[in-house]
Specification:
Layout: E1 13-25, E2 31-41, E3 46-55, E4 61-68, E5 82-89, E6 95-102
Antiparallel strand pairs: 1-2, 2-3, 3-4, 4-5, 5-6
């Protein structure tokens, strides 16, 4: 977690049924996920998530993520997060994204 962030303001919530999800394909048939969606936290805050994917050997997808939260709320720190993740398929109707905050110390 970033400096000053406690477990009490680490987001936990539900992905809302809004947004868009594309699987972009280039001329070499390489696919790249591109998604925008929103999360409503258990305490009622809304966080917009934008993810873009990059191909990885073996068919996996690496992601970079951008978060947008209220600048006056307890999740404002997310606006400065550099997120990287791995996209894994959980069957045909779901995916799992493991995401990490990258920082230089």
């Amino acid at each position: 977690m970033p400096h000053g962030v406690t477990s009490t303001n680490t987001p936990s919530g539900t992905v809302l049924n809004v947004g868009a999800d594309w699987l972009l394909t280039d001329t070499q048939a390489v696919t790249r996920p591109d998604a925008r969606y929103a999360i409503r936290t258990v305490d009622g805050a809304n966080i917009v998530v934008v993810t873009e994917g990059f191909p990885e050997p073996g068919g996996g997808k690496m992601l970079r993520a951008k978060f947008e939260a209220s600048t006056n709320g307890s999740y404002a720190w997310l606006n400065d997060v550099v997120g990287v993740g791995v996209l894994k398929s959980n069957g045909t109707n779901a995916v799992r994204i493991d995401m990490w905050h990258v920082s230089v110390r």
